[in-house]
Amino acid sequence: MLAVAAWALPHAIGFGFETEAQLLLWERLRYPGTVAAPVLYLLFSLQYAGYDRWVSTRTIAGLSAVPLVTIVIVWTGPELGLFWTAIDVDTAFGTSVLAPEYGPWYWINLAYLYAVTATGLTVYASLVLKAGAIYRKQALVMFLAGALPLLANATRMFGFVSSPAVDFTTVGLAATGVLFAVTLFYLDLLQLRPVARERLLEQLEDGVIVIRPCGLVRDHNPIAATLFQDLLSTYL
Predict the structure, then answer these.
(1) The domain containing residue 221 runs over which residues?
(2) Which of 13, 110, 150, 230 is deepest in the core (most CB within 10 A)?
C-alpha cells in the first residue's frame, strides 16, 4: 500500500500543474511506486501461498533489477530517447497532462511489470481453484486487487479509451486499497493463510494420507508411500 500511495499521490498532485517541467517532475516522482508495487504484489502472493523459500534475497534482487534501471533512466533527459523520445503537454477534461512519445525502455519496463503482475495473479488464481472456502475468498479478493489496476492500465495503453492521455490506473489502485482492507480486516488475511502442499506433505517426517469422502486416497507424501505401498496401490 505504501508503494501504491507513492504511485498514486504524485500522479494526483501533477494535475495541479500546467507547464511541461512541472508535469514531468511529478511524473518522474511517481515511478518508484509504479515499479515497486507489482514486484511487492508478486512477493506477497508467494509468501501468502506458502512459497516462502522462493522469497530469498537473490529473488528480491533479481526482481528489482529492471525497476531500479527504470528509475535511473526515468531521471535522464528525453533527449536520450530511452524512456521518452519526446514530451508534449495535452489537455483532457480541462486538465493539463503529459502526452509523451515512448522510447524502447518504456515498453521493456511495461512488459516486465505486466509479466510480474500476471505471475502474482496466477498464484492467486491457483489458490482460488484449489484452496478451501475461506482461503478461496481471500485469494479471489487479492486477485481482483491486482487485476483491476492492470486492466485499467491495459485499456489505456492499447487504445481502448477515448482519451489515452488520461491514466485511469490510479482509479484501479483506489479499488485495490479497498480490497486489501477487506481481506485484512474482514477475511483475516494475516491470521489465516493457506500452506503449500509441498510444505504440508513433502517436508513432514510422518506418513500423511488424504482420504476422499468416498474412501479413496486423494493424496499422500513419500513417507506414506513407503509405509503403506500395498494399501495405497489398492485405494488410489
Answers:
(1) 197-235
(2) 150
